[in-house]
Amino acid sequence: MSGGEQHIAVLKGGWSAEREVSLVSGAQCAAALRRCGFTVSEIDAAPDLPARLSAIAPDIVFNALHGRWGEDGCVQGLLELMGLPYTHSGVKASAIAMDKQVAKSLFAADGIRCPEGQLVPYRDISLKDLPYFPCVVKPVTEGSSVGVAIIHEGQNTLPAGLSGESWQFGEMALVERFIPGREVTVAVMDGKALAVTEIEPKTRFYDYEAKYADGGSQHNLPADLPDAIAEMACAIAEQAHRALGCRGVSRADFRYDPAEGGEGLYLLEINTQPGMTPTSLVPEQAEFRGIGFDRLCQWLVEDASCAR
């Protein structure tokens, strides 16, 4: 494998709540691209990003940013204006996927089952007025389970993150019916599902720590699911990828309630900038399909070049 003379700018870090994860993702991807023979510049994204990109004039931008500003269409719009090809999804797909309620509306219109939910002003959230028990309360436009809380029936107090000034995620929260059962995820690469992984978090649920801490969760690949459910998860992940107009790689996250049988698979969300850290799911599934990490990163660059 060789990158020839191409110069790749790897965007990482930034200023979202997922900055630290992005720094790890970016460093790992930059190292892989260098092994593939590319000239690589690593950029810790900041408000001076346009000037820094203009100064180095890369051929392609590898977007390893996570969270707001990096995967919500903002940096994608900047790169479009600058005429720079970039990895992963474009402006529209990124913006829609990041807004969980808007994405759910599109999924529902396409016949994809998602948990029931509604937007609620976070200041109005109280134990006596919640629409579902148990329920999941989450920011509308954050990733990596940042700010997510589960409220169970019989709880006497709200989680600390939902009280006072600790909520830092806008005026509205998304309140969804909690789906009991199992956590599964499917990566999609070039429009095709790679595999199904079941995640067994070591914490109470698949939160930020379970996602990124060493030993925070166990990934069972392939998932020990009925064949029909695994096939359904792959089909829905591909359908959701198409419905949003994603490109490159995406990851679909599900909850599966075995008590509901074939009706128990619920799509939670689509991630258009999946993590590329040592504990990340997409590199694991690619490796399972015989696509090593270096090849995965190189393919993303090639895909960005073709999308121009």
Explain what the structure shows.
The protein folds into 3 domains: 81 residues, Rossmann fold (3-Layer(aba) Sandwich), CATH 3.40.50.20; 113 residues, ATP-grasp fold, B domain (D-amino Acid Aminotransferase, Chain A, domain 1); 61 residues, Dna Ligase, domain 1 (2-Layer Sandwich), CATH 3.30.1490. The chain is built from 9 helices and 12 strands. A hairpin with a 2-residue loop joins strand 8 and strand 9. It has 308 residues and is of the alpha+beta class. It has a 5-stranded antiparallel beta sheet with strand order 10-9-8-11-12. Strands 4-7-5-6 form a 4-stranded antiparallel beta sheet, with no helix packed on it. The two termini are 22 Å apart. Helices cover 31% and strands 23% of the residues.
